[in-house]
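Hi support team,

I've been running sequence recovery on a batch of backbones for a student project. Most finish fine, but this one hangs at about 90% for roughly twenty minutes before it completes. I'm not sure whether the input is malformed or the queue is just slow. I've pasted the structure tokens below so you can try to reproduce it. Let me know if you need the job ID as well.

Thanks,
M.K.
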């Protein structure tokens, strides 16, 4: 797994120059509470066929994701991009509307990204 800013990137097969290590299952890595003990909320987006795109397209998409996540760096606690499944998982602090606002911001940069699921906010 590679970490780039806020974004963890998991690939099924190594690409040129990539150093990868086996990752723990996502359910073991995703935080459920922030530093104050408050519950986090999360959402999942599908980015169809991302893992099979040419390296240049993949790099550009990752850069766009990093740009969006950087705008929300005070809210985003965890982000994981699984290229084998073409899935982006994001955990955030519980802020009203964030699980619609942030996916909308991602979709503005990456139109093919689809919101698949979002967690409950408390």
């Amino acid at each position: 797994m590679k970490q780039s800013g806020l974004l963890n990137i998991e690939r099924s097969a190594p690409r040129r120059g990539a150093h990868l290590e086996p990752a723990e299952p996502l359910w073991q890595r995703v935080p459920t509470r922030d530093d104050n003990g408050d519950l986090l909320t999360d959402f999942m987006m599908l980015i169809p066929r991302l893992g099979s795109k040419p390296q240049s397209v993949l790099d550009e998409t990752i850069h766009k994701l990093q740009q969006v996540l950087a705008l929300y760096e005070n809210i985003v606690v965890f982000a994981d991009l699984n290229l084998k499944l073409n899935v982006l998982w994001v955990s955030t602090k519980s802020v009203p509307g964030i699980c619609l606002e942030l996916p909308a911001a991602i979709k503005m940069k990456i139109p093919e990204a689809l919101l698949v699921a979002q967690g409950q906010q408390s």
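--
Follow-up from support: It reproduced on our side and the slowdown came from queue contention, not your input. The domain at 2-10+30-118 is CATH 3.30.70.100 (Alpha-Beta Plaits). No action needed from you.
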